[in-house]
Specification:
Elements: H1 7-22, H2 24-37, H3 87-109, H4 116-143, H5 167-172, H6 176-204, H7 208-235
Length: 241
């Protein structure tokens, strides 16, 4: 008789999905968090970001066009767009995967949080991103009916290693507060990548409706980043359990 997945298992799975969808964004967030905890000695890292050589900057701080098309695991990197495929199709494919990761993670990790402010955040994100995903899928079929997917659809992503090997699984085995804090940190990085992609679409998309949607997405994600960062600050304030 098959076992029903536990909430902890679903939480780990959601975190893995979010990480797989983010690629550079979540990896950068995890790397920066670990590096800060290790208190690196003064070096290139202490120089302002824009004063560092391009290749010494974290992937998320490089211009889109300076990021490699492929990740270190050989899979296409989200946020990198090829000149050989229509930009609009690539954006729709990538942002659809990006949204699916956010939806799954949000449903599993904060939709039923004990914190009302996180439930409110989840409700808004789920409503908005479901509607946006529906529009993107509709446009993809309408505009490029014969073009094969330009980016992995997300199927099989769970077979890929999670960020940092077992690091994610170990972190997610904590209590619900730990899981929610992890969600917020990861989703901030996830949203930052989404904002960059949306800005790229506003400059490069050929369909006016897509440029309009990208502008709306960028504004919404930027506002949600501010909300999530404020929740993170509140969660780590002295006296909060």
């Amino acid at each position: 008789m098959p076992r029903t997945p536990t909430r902890r298992a679903l939480t780990v799975l959601a975190a893995a999905t979010l990480t797989a969808g983010v690629g550079a964004g979540a990896a950068y967030a995890g790397h920066r968090s670990d590096a800060e905890a290790a208190s690196p000695s003064p070096s290139m890292m202490d120089r302002p970001m824009m004063d560092r050589p391009m290749m010494d900057r974290p992937m998320m701080d490089r211009p889109m066009m300076d990021r490699p098309m492929m990740g270190g695991d050989g899979h296409p990197r989200m946020g990198a767009f090829s000149a050989e495929q229509p930009f609009d199709a690539q954006f729709l494919d990538q942002m659809s995967v990006h949204h699916r990761g956010a939806l799954m993670s949000t449903e599993a990790m904060i939709a039923d949080s004990a914190r009302p402010e996180l439930r409110e955040l989840a409700a808004g994100m789920l409503t908005s991103q479901r509607a946006q995903l529906d529009r993107m899928l509709s446009w993809r079929g309408e505009w490029y009916p014969d073009l094969p997917p330009t980016f992995p659809t997300g199927e099989g992503m769970m077979d890929r290693p999670m960020m940092g090997g077992s690091m994610m699984g170990k972190r997610m085995m904590g209590g619900s507060a730990d899981a929610e804090a992890m969600y917020l940190r990861m989703m901030v990085a996830h949203h930052r990548l989404g904002v960059e992609m949306a800005e790229e679409a506003q400059r490069r998309a050929t369909h006016p409706r897509l440029r309009e949607l990208a502008a709306s997405m960028g504004a919404e994600r930027a506002a949600e980043i501010e909300v999530m960062e404020s929740h993170l600050a509140g969660a780590t304030a002295p006296g909060r359990s």
